[in-house]
Amino acid sequence: MSQQSQLKTDYGDEESAMQTYLAEGQSTALGLDNRGPIRFTDDGAIDPEILEAYWHYGFYVFEDVLKSEELRDLETDFEHILDRLPTHQGAALDHKGRPALGHDCTARTLYWSKPLGDPFGGSEFGGGRHPVAMIEPQPATDAPAEIVYLILGSLQFSDACLRTYGHPHLLAVAAAVNGADFVPYTDGLFIKAPGLGASVAWHQDGVTHWTSPDWDQGSHGFNFMGQLYGCTPANGVWVVPGSHKLGKIDITAKVAAAGTERLPDAVPMVCNPGDVVISNRQLLHGSFANTSTDWRVTINMGFHRRAAVLGVSGGGILGNPTVYDDAHIRQRSRTIGYAINARRQRYPHETPFVYQPFADCADECSFDETARASLHDYNLTDMGV
User: pTM surpassing 0.90?
Assistant: First the structure.
């Protein structure tokens, strides 16, 4: 895979406006005071300035979290995943005639799109939360008919992703934001291949708590977005800073007022390889089709407050009607324990994170072949609110 290279877009009559938008967005994004390494106070807490900036903007770019060794492992697993994708949507075999990735999964794992398409915009997906479609640039004549742009349940396909899921500094941030008893949401890989990657129309995540009397700026949790190759304005996620505080936004009216899907108050997430963004799920966010020459591969890991899911019936992208009781939460949260143990095996000199819900029974989460097999279809227990 190539690292970041020269920006290239092809939006036809919109090209000049798009180039200006990308450049201005990058300048604004880099001027915000919400990026830097994960920092701790003398007593081991997350630096309060980081948390203050996160809650102010709704996102924070943690720099240089994933080091070169971990990035190599992630890249190796990602290339293996690409090699095992079905030859086409619904196929049981990969291009070498082997059983394809996810062929035996009950949960939906692979999401497909036409190249440079917008599969969600204007659809009923996720409760219709992507109401306005993005521009769909014309792909090259030799582009495939369809591409995989999102893989859910990625921890069952990649030990490297599982180990990243157990990163002690990231889990410390999760505890600082969502409490020591934080729980998983879902996880996956967003794949933006050069000249092919699909857009994701403007939306806010979460459907359950918007009208709750105790709604606040953190009610729908957050996502960590680890960047394997970095991300640019052309292939990265754009967000409207501070919009996580505004409640449910009328996206159709906002785009109409702007006269374009290039929202003037949005900024891109600009990252180097190994950076990890924490992004509030209530932020208004989206991404454009990747007409650039750069890959974006995002290791996505979502987390909730326990109180936000306990006793709640699922919704959103997962559409799971199960009521999340203590047993369900514990079953799904076991993946965090597996991740911590798997990471400890790979990085024995690193101080592991202590996840409070399993602090007294760490042996329950030893990662071995039996545990790896138990991850099959684990995302059937994902918790979406």
Answer: yes
